[in-house]
Amino acid sequence: MSAAERDLTARELADALWLASQMWNASREVARPAAVPATPKREHVVLPMALPPPEDVPPALRSTTPPHVPPEVARSTKDAVPPQFVLGTPSRHEPGAARPVTENLPHTRAISRALRPLARLVPSDHEVEFDEETTALRVAETGVWLPAFLPALTRPFEIALVVDTASLEIWQREIADFRAVLETQGAFRTVRLYFVDFDQESSGDLLVRVGAPDGPSRGPAELLDPSGGRLVLVVTDGVGRAWHTGAADRVIGYWGRSIHVSVVHLLPHELWSWTGLVTTRVQLRMPDAGAPNARIRYRLADPSDERPPDTAVPVPVLELRPDWLGHWTRLVTGDGPAVRLTTLFADPSAKESTFEVDPLPHLSPADRVSRFRTIASPPAFALAGLLAATPVPLKLPVMSAVRQTVLPSTKLSHLAEVLLGGLIERDEETSSPGTYEFRDGLRQELLSTCSRADTARVLRTVADLLPKSEATRDLKEALDDPDSAISDATPESLPHLRLQQVIFRAMSGPYAKRSNRIRTMITDLTADRVEPETESADSIARVSAPAEEESPSQILPINAADPGGTVTVRDEASSTILSQQGDAPRAWSVPPRNFNFTGRTAMLAALHTRLTSGDAFPTAVLPEALYGLGGIGKSQVAVEYAYLHADDYDVVWWIPSEDPTHIRSVFVELAAQLGIPNTGAVNSVIAAVRESLRRGHPYRRWLLVFDNADKPEDVRPFFPTGGSGHILVTSRNTHWSSVAQTVEVDLFSRSESKQLLQRRNQGLTDADAEQVADVLGDLPLAIEQAASWLRETGMNAGEYLSLFARKRAELLEAGLPVDYHVPVAAAWNVSFDRLSVENPAALQLLQVCAFFAPEPISRSLFIELQGIPVPDELGEALRDPLLLGKAMRQINKYSLAQIDQSKGTILLHRLVQGALFDRMTPQERAQMRHAAHVLLATDDPRGPATQNNWVKYIELLPHVRASKMQECDDPWVRRTALHSAVFLAAWGDDQGGLDYGRELLAYWSERFGEEKPDTLSTAKQVGVCLRALGRYTEALAVDERAYAVARENLGEESENTLVLANMVAQDVRALGEFTKAWQLSDGAYRTAKAVYGEEDGLSLAAADNLGIALRLVGRFAEARDIDQATWEHRARILGDEHRFTLSMLNNLCLDIRECGEYVQARDMLETAVAKHRRLFGDDHPDTLRAIKNLAVARRKAGDHPGGLRLSEEAVLRYVKRYGENYPGSLAASLNLAVDLRQAGALTESRTLGEQVLAAYAETLGEYHPYVLATKTNLAVTVRLMGELERASELNEDAFVTMQDALGYDHPFTLVCATNRASDHAASGDFEKSYALNQRVLERSQRVLGEDHPSTLACLANIVLDLRGVGRTADAESLQIDVISRFRRALGKNHPATIAAASSTRADCDLEALPTG
After folding, report:
1. Where along the sequence do coiled-coil regions lie (predicted)?
2. Interatomic CA distance for residues 61 and 259, integer angstroms
3. Which is the most buried residue in 35, 183, 997, 1240, by most CB within 10 A?
């Protein structure tokens, strides 16, 4: 007896004895068919599993033990299940009997125990039973016989077992055993069986079949049960197409809205990532036993995981093991704390995608096998090799026989690994269902992993299994004697002969001759007939061809900037050119291709091998870095690789990476291609892009090229952390070798240099090409430029070398370092001299572009402009688009810049810019730099805070910084630099805005003075960024200095002075000095209103600040009045949906809430949050603030579950965007801790509260009001957990400090005092509690009002204090009044009203109100 069998309770032993007696009685009844059966008891009937046997299962492989069904059960259920669906089984003595195709379910007894808590009884809603005792008492008392009834006890749940028929033939035994466990468990009223074919691509085709796979079909609504007692278990392996396209998610999400549904996964969880189910680890809590999934509260275990859409419902996904089912049982019953389970978020409104038959079509057979060897378990890989030796089409009975005979230690899950590992696909062409075949070329690769002995065992096993099959004819004889005769080949035997030819060839040795004989027979048979070109026939033909006889093919690059369209395929053997439609990437952004690209063949091949070798590790993306000197051709190699392998990817995206800000802008563009909305919050957009690529939704195959990435620490944060894509980096920095695999890009080989020169110049001799390559040092950029020059000018090599020698000497005389720059600069100076004669405007345009960044420059910058300070030739070209076009053609002619006609951009290499800079005089440099500044300033839309202008600022920013616009003498030009800094902060890149703002502030303070308006505006912008990053002390130092300078130099009424006064007030508020902040804000508002008028933008901003300050000092009614007026002004001037108007509405709702009108505030915020989401997106800072505020309003209005859901969302979004210690993240977490306490999750609430307290104390200091508020909230949780001493300590510390910092009448202090009184009451000191509450009541009535909920909470606690001191009559009289006032203020169903009526002590909480 096993340990599990010995571990029986007395009750289990009694149940077992009773069951044995019933089985004995049943067997006696079967032995005496004439006996009259007793009246059957109303018991749950256990049915055999109604699953069909596979049609192609040979009798020898079917189950050898028929299920025993007692006659009375058979009679009572004869109509329930069609008899043809009961597993057919041969007799035990049938010849050729073998082991069953599928396996029994392990751990059935442990699974039964895990489900045991569900075996509870509850009163029925519609069934009754006779109550003997009550009836007898009634008869005795009244003399009237009137029967009494009571609700019958019944099981609360029934099970709807939904079986996925996509792979039913593999799992039917495990499913049958699981069903038997459910039925014999006795925990459920009934177990109903349904079937759904999840191999359909569309949700409209997912029909529910009742009782059998071909039973009556119904729609998904068939499973809905309005009584609420049905649990749906979907049993699947996740392989069917519907799991990949999203169709299954839609149907399951539809069920989950009304009933509880869970997925039972038949595969080990290690293999789930191979299937179509996308799961995540989630903490789940069920509000009621058996509640629908839509009501399950969840919390993501990893805050970095993307939050699912609001329409998605959490669906637990379980492995068919006792521990997993035990967790599920605790969840369904609602017992105990939250349960952590792997979860599928099923969205009934999700868009469906198409099914991708082969997600890795670019892999060669060798690569596929190598990848499978890496990711599969060793037994699975060994099994794959054995199955490759199977000489018949792969069907489940054959595969199972091979597995159980040749490799008996393997499990069914190992076979599942083979089926899911990308080696085998279902053969849709065959007429026999359930047939699989290896993908093209894989049999040969896998056979090389098998020993000859194992291959022979497989052949014998199949021959024994199918002795009369055409496929196994002569097979045993061939194994015994390879030289034995081969039966005549027929068209019917041709596919089998092809398989045998491949297998015998792999066995080699004496079997190689037999392989050659079979091949000759195949050739003779097919010589005079044409094979139908089916996919399977072609596949087998390719497999059978010897590797050395296959013709190599080279896929040439795609011949267009757009990779879609035609792919050219060259067959080297016949030199014929073929065309086929390419599989173009769906998202493509790569620079134009260089059609003169030469050489680097070995490097490209090695790069491809290294990148694709990472495909074996789908959870990690290993970057490849191309590094080398400037001009060496790194970017050209990357461009060529992208075009060469374009059809391997769904997304190919080029990311210029010199500046992190530019990387962010490119990610925003990529987000649009991935269908990710631009919320205006750049960091959240970037996080969403990285998560999309990691998860492979909507595109699995992607290539990101980070070009010219100088600093690894700046670029690595943008890398996706996983997924099935590739990352390629180009850099001049050798330090990439420490964080990536690196490939050094060196000079051209001499043959590559000569090849490029002669390709562009057909008449160039080897000797001349050798000389040119030698003087240019084989530098690719110089070779390319020289080739263009020779082609365009027609100059012979001797003349060019003479001209080059003169230019080289000039450069050396000028002191240019003797390195690879000399040949490059000399080569370009030859072209520059020619251009200055042919088209001076073209050269001058290049000189202006030398001061831009080495990034694409929009052609629109130069079109139809007047008054730009440039030489006359260029000025004329800027006014006339025809002359400008001619200049650009001349530039392109000599390969001096890269011009992308499709995007309308011009791009100069940094070395070209350097050469242009070196040849200009100081006067020319000053003139051309100023021209660049004016061009950029002219293109400035002058509205950096307006979202519609952000695309233009993204385009301008790298050139603004590279040209050093802050150094220009023209204030109008310099303002574009300031606008760029403002844009970065508005865009959400606070750190980038801070860095650039500090750069501007330092330069302008030193050169122009601190008192200049632009310097003061920049100081304000630096303070804004520091405050947004939570660096309040630094912000205050910057703002106070600027404010002092402004007051001294500009006066008290200057616009800059008033703005900076408000900035200082915000800093002071953030640091917790609420009274000082209010005084500053009040003074600034009064001055602005008097000088500029009430409706001026400056006055409205000052009023906004004043409202915040009033709210923080507890003057809620005054804050409400001023916020109401400001909101109305902004709505009239700016419109209802302007960002500033909605921000004021959010503030007004806070005032209304703090005034105690919770329901009104909640209703207004619901509308405001919906507008924020629609206009700005879920992750915009304003939206996050509104969501956070609505969460609190919901809780205070009595909707605790709704508040909890929004609090969790707010925390996840804040943390994902800003991190855990960001002020908004901490405030949201403080609110969530209160919501968790209200939901009864005290341990989770305390843990989170302790974390927030520590973070606040570290970032704000021990005496900040928000630290004290956190202590107040935490003390309530600790007291409710029974730790009275700790609660008293927290409250006392907060109460004393609040009185000093805020005053006794501040609402924070009053709430803390109310909770402190509750500590006294909890310790039994009702006198002390009563005295403190009386003092609080008097102040609360004066400060907040007599009917404010906080006042009423204090009054409700006084009722309990009065009872505690023995004044019961006073308590009851006061309680009636309190309940009445709660009903008027909050409604009769509000939790606070109910608590007051049930004499439950009120606990108050605090929120970290926004400071800006």
Report:
1. none
2. 40
3. 997
